[in-house]
Amino acid sequence: MPPRFSTAEKTVPIYVVTTKSLPQALEQLEIAARNWVDAGGFAAKLGQVALIPAPDGSILAVLAGWGDRTARDQGWFHFAGIADKLPEGDYRIESGLGKDELEEAALAWLLGGYRFDKYKEQPEQHARLVCPQGLDAARIELKAEATFLTRDLINTPASDMGPEALEAAFMALAKRHKAKASAIIGADLLKENLPLIHTVGRAAEQPPRLLDMIWGDESAPKLTLVGKGVCFDTGGLNIKPGASMGIMKKDMGGAANVLGLAHMIMSLGLRVRLRVLVPAVENAISASAFRPGDILRSRKGLTIENNNTDAEGRLVLADALAMADEESPDLLISMATLTGAARVALGADLPPFYTDDGALAHRISRAARAVADPLWRMPFWDGYERQIEPGIADLDNAPKGGMAGSITAALFLRRFVENTTQFVHFDIYGWVPESRPARPKGGEAQGGRALLAVIEELYT
Ligand code: BES
Ligand code: MN
Ligand code: ZN
Questions:
Q1: Which residues, given as ranges, of the chain have pLDDT below 70?
Q2: pLDDT digits over 287-322, tens only?
Q3: Which residue's alpha carbon is at the smallest distance from atom 13 of ligand 1?
Q4: Which of 291, 324, 374, 426 to pair with 440, CA 20 to 30 A apart?
Q5: Short-list 185, 180, 192, CA closest to 163
């Protein structure tokens, strides 16, 4: 179900109360209600909720604790924690929040209402919110919808989200927005000179493919999104241990994220010529699997010593990026669940991004903060270039020792981007390990809302 605000006429008011405004709020209540709130231990702590009963036993109003928050600087999406504590029903935010906070609260509410219930018989209900006045309800719903799309794609297990199903989802989105879309599948990848995508995906039952979508006015600025679509990453012959393989259905998180972003761009009708490229493969094991030590030739001509079949993401991206770069887009963005090292450096919630363009980096960081979509710049550190240059080929996909693993992976990708002036790469995690307000455990959208803000800034 797409995330929607309530349109109910009858709603329960929520009064947002800080520790400071608590005495004042209590004064407005009748004595019985005040005693009830007191007796329940309500102290307006962040996330605390007090339900005030009407004489007939229904809920008359809600007091929602906001702690000593005065601005958004203490964390993000706390309002979703409040929504989670409310019984099913229709609510409105009556007072206590400024406009920016209201917008964040409204989005948080919708994001927190996500349930991956495709495989459940009894879907759970969530409290509904009427969109606060003065906000663009459709735009907030669109952001939530894009996030839900990304989450659904990631959460769907590889048994139902292999390269074929990912292609179907890709084509469905293209159709919805009347974009042109095509796929190069299996042996055709060799004919079309996309050898790395073929190499990584050839051992799987569902043949590897490159998905390509083009939308918008040809004369508008060219924006190309490339997303890693490894539908399952066993590690290949360098097989992953069980614990690391457990959530590798999420290894198409880059693809899921660029599709969410593309959905927002196309829905809003932004003035860009959008292209989306997704190499969709499964990194599987069979007699035809590529091997450690193989020397691989890329689309671009650079040769690669494959020192680890588990460093497959940069291989499929290399060909997709080279293809994207051939038409020198104005802005080229790649998103990929590329390295475990990115998570070691910054954790699950804070994806690093890489670009040589300082002004662009600044825009991204600022947008990330403004729209509560955390991102952190890391460097394309030239000094580590030698780590990706092995003995007998041009490049090494898995430098020994693994130091600065997210940086060396980013440097590897940069070798395939030559003509594009603005290139940004995001090494995302695409997953929430433990549920938090607005961020249920499972697949997650990262970076898309920040990028939408940047793209709007650049091209409108
Ligand atoms: N998909 C993984 C990266 C990954 C692992 C992301 C766990 C998030 C969580 C990627 O294909 C991979 O296996 N990378 C290797 C590269 C190494 C072999 C050079 C890694 O990070 O260990
Ligand atoms: Mn891998
Ligand atoms: Zn992978």
A1: 70-75
A2: 999 999 999 999 999 999 999 999 999 999 999 999
A3: 310
A4: 426
A5: 185
Query: Which ligand has the minimum distance to the alpha carbon of residue 279?
Result: 3
For residue 277, give Cα distances in angstroms to 157, 322, 404: 22, 11, 27
In angstroms, what CA-CA distances link 318 with 9, 66, 227, 323, 416?
54, 47, 11, 9, 6
- Please tell me the predicted confidence (pLDDT) of residue 381: 98
No. of helices (H) and no. of strands (E), the chain: 15, 19
pTM, entire model: 0.97
**Residues with active-site annotation:** 240, 314
pLDDT at 74: 46
> Residue 71: its pLDDT value, please?
52
Give the number of the atom of ligand 1 that is nearest the alpha carbon of residue 308: 18
* CB of 354 closer than 8 Å to CB of 246: no
Q: Tell how far CA 360 is from the center of its chain.
A: 19
Read off the amino acid at residue 351.
Answer: P
CA trace torsion 302, 305, 308, 313 (10° rounding): 0
Query: What is d(CA 266, CA 304) in angstroms, rounded to the nearest whole number?
Result: 36
Under 8 Å between Cβ of 145 and 234: no
The helix (H) or strand (E) run that includes residue 426 is strand 422-427
Taken in order of first residue, the domains within the chain and their CATH numbers are 12-127 (3.40.220.10), 143-459 (3.40.630.10)
Give 321's contacts (C-beta < 8 A, 6+ positions apart). Answer: 226, 332, 334, 413, 416, 417
Give the angle 119-173-310 at the CA atoms, nearest 5°. Answer: 70
Residue 313 structure tokens: 């993401």
